[in-house]
Amino acid sequence: MVIKRLPVYLVLIAYAVLVAYPLVWVVIASLRSSPEISQDPWGLPKEPRWDNYVRAWLGDTLSGDPGLAQAFVSSAIVTVVSMVFLLLISAMAAYVLARFLFPGSGLLYNVFLFGMMFPVFLGVIPLYLLLNRMGLLNTYAGLIVAYVAYSLSFTIFILTGFFKTLPGELAEAGAIDGCSRWGVFWRIMLPLARPGLITAGIFDAIGLWNEYPLALVIMTENDRMTLPLAIANMAQKQHYQTDWGALFAGLVIVMVPTLVGYILFQRRITAGLTAGAVKG
User: Fold this and answer.
1) Best CA proximity match to 143, nearest among 232, 215, 68, 71
2) 210 or 262: which carries more pLDDT confidence?
């Protein structure tokens, strides 16, 4: 049996190496000096350079580099607040689309699905003009509104399929006991949808944490940059500063929250996808 599965194991091991090796290389490079990286890109650090992380985090006052500290705070604020509004709005919309039939419900659901196919680049210019007219450029509120609108389609798609698997008898029992429709949703159905919310939330959080095009258009001031913008700005400066160790340290700082979140919630992600795919 093991011999028959050996080719499969070899393919999986090769795939794991291809995925893990770039991450390991970035971590190793983040502990090396720029001359070491230039002379021997694949070597190990002679002495760990932890000061790379200090420069990446705090920046360099002499060159005017603000570092990643402020960008990390900006990304955290925008991602967390966007997730709260996104999951709340998407859960209410998905519950109605999944549990109630009304004229135009199918068309409305298809409109949300179409939003998943709409390229974000086509809406950049109208979005910029709209937010500029509303005075929301270079504000957290403007970026949060854009992120929520951009992510609604995917989140509603995930949660609609999940709400369809929940037993309708529980909602009927709650209504018999005197719960209003809002009470049934808030007290019964929403807690049951927790695995689906976690699954959609993790995928959305990873996407928003790493989002670049919308932030590039909306956030043009250095003190409001998100992490992807700060990393891109740092990468451009390395062409004449050549502080590659600090750049790779910044990449590690950006990757760590995503990797930690996925490791902590990987079982919940799998459970949520499975629960949403099987008809109850």
Assistant:
1) 215
2) 210
Annotated domain spans of the chain: 2-61+242-252, 69-230+263-277
d(CA 149, CA 176): 36
Q: What are phi and psi of 138, to 5 degrees?
A: 60, 35
pTM (two decimals):
0.85
Enter the DSSP assignment of 118: S
DSSP string, 38-51: HH-TTS--SS--TH
Work out the average pLDDT over 170-177.
82
Amino acid letter, 98: A
- Residues 76, 88: Cα–Cα separation, whole Å: 18
| pLDDT of res. 181 | 83
Taking residues 233-252, what's their average pLDDT? 84
Question: Can you give the pLDDT at residue 280?
Answer: 43
In 126-145, which positions are buried (b, 16+ CB within 10 angstroms) versus exposed (e)?
ebbeebeeeebbbbbebbbb
Instruction: Enter the tokens of residue 236.
Output: 């451009």
The token pair at 1 is 């049996």
Q: What is residue 65's predicted lDDT score, i.e. its pLDDT?
A: 66
Q: Quick check: 58 pLDDT over 90?
A: no
H helices of the chain, in order, are 2-29, 34-39, 51-58, 69-99, 105-117, 124-134, 140-165, 168-176, 181-183, 190-192, 194-209, 213-218, 227-241, 244-277
pLDDT of 60 higher than 80 = no
* CA atoms of 196 and 202, how far apart (whole Å): 10
Predicted confidence (pLDDT) at residue 276 exceeds the cutoff of 70? no
With residue 1 as reference, give the H or E element that holds it. Answer: none
The structure tokens listed for 247 are: 């750049």
> Which CATH number fits the domain 69-230+263-277, given the four candidates 3.40.50.300, 3.30.1360.120, 1.10.10.10, 1.10.3720.10?
1.10.3720.10
Question: In this structure, what are the phi and psi dihedrals at residue 65, rounded to the nearest 5 degrees?
Answer: -80, 120
